[in-house]
Specification:
single chain; about 300 residues; alpha/beta; Oxidized Rhodanese, domain 1
């Protein structure tokens, strides 16, 4: 049986819409209008798709010391996955397909979260809902009937780093020994990375030493991921000789960073981790260093 663990094309998904083992999740979201994604889903979605809200389902509540999208409680997330019909017990492993409007940022968040909980049969619809519509495939507005299943989380906390771990690496004296064990790669656009145009967070800039690889650069003009060979070339320019296992992906709040992680996996560069708190958590403590300008 073929399974999908990175990307799936619209024409590959279409024959499986009636398959009870396959679960499609609509992750459309708008940071400026947090209800827009659910309204879009209510108006039209891939038949059978459930809706996952970034704030309500794919994040936990914001705390005073957290970023804008803290990781969800794994037990609560597992319960939600089970309610959606995603099972992982007794040969009941679901093939999950996540999609969003088109840039795959929000779908990649769910992709990463499922892998964090030990579920690897999860793929992102390449090009999202826009690609589905361009292919002339069916949509509907019906709320799907759900058959709950049991999802038991097998949490792998080696997949992400805390702010304390990142801060320890940043503060390390480069003359004290071997090079740092992590290389931060920031998925935000260059204007925000350089501190020239911060629109979401109260402090502009980046973590010192971070490299910039805007997530939009992983996509073609239609919002589909570039071919694996081209992704490897682009990431090679960002990383040089740095192995993917040393990469820690970050962004504003740990969402678009997941799209960079998916791009790396698609390129065959495995082993990168997520800085879950990202920039919005880093700046909660004004004593942490900030850099601006070209980097």
């Amino acid at each position: 049986m073929t399974t999908y663990a990175t990307l799936i094309q619209a024409r590959e998904l279409a024959p499986h819409l009636g398959d009870a083992r396959w679960v499609v999740i609509d992750c459309r979201f708008d940071l400026a209008d947090t209800g827009a994604g659910r309204r879009a889903w209510q108006a039209a979605h891939i038949p059978g798709a459930r809706y996952a809200h970034l704030d309500e389902d794919l994040s936990s509540a914001v705390r005073g010391d957290s970023g804008r999208h803290p990781l969800p409680n794994p037990v609560a997330l597992a319960a939600r996955l089970g309610q959606w019909g995603i099972g992982n017990q007794g040969g009941d492993d679901a093939q999950v397909v996540a999609y969003d409007a088109g840039n795959s940022a929000y779908a990649s968040r769910l992709w990463w979260l499922l892998r964090w909980l030990g579920h690897t049969d999860v793929a992102v619809l390449d090009g999202g809902f826009a690609a589905w519509q361009r292919a002339g495939l069916p949509v509907d507005s019906q709320t799907p009937a759900l058959t709950p299943r049991r999802f038991v989380p097998h949490v792998d906390d080696t997949r992400w780093l805390s702010t304390a771990a990142v801060a320890s690496s940043v503060a390390r004296d480069p003359l004290a020994g071997p090079p740092p064990a992590i290389t931060l790669v920031d998925a935000r656009g260059a204007d925000r990375f350089e501190g020239r145009n911060e629109t979401l967070d109260p402090v502009a800039g980046r973590i010192p030493g971070a490299r910039n690889h805007p997530f939009a650069g992983n996509l073609d003009a239609d919002g589909r991921f570039l071919p694996a060979a081209e992704l490897r070339q682009r990431w090679g320019r960002t990383l040089g000789d740095t192995p993917a296992s040393q990469v820690v992906s970050m962004c504003g709040s740990g969402v678009t960073a997941c799209q960079n992680l998916l791009a790396l996996e698609t390129a065959g560069l495995s082993g990168a981790r997520l800085y879950a708190g990202s920039w919005s958590e880093w700046i909660r403590d004004p004593s942490r260093p900030v850099a601006t300008g070209p980097g």
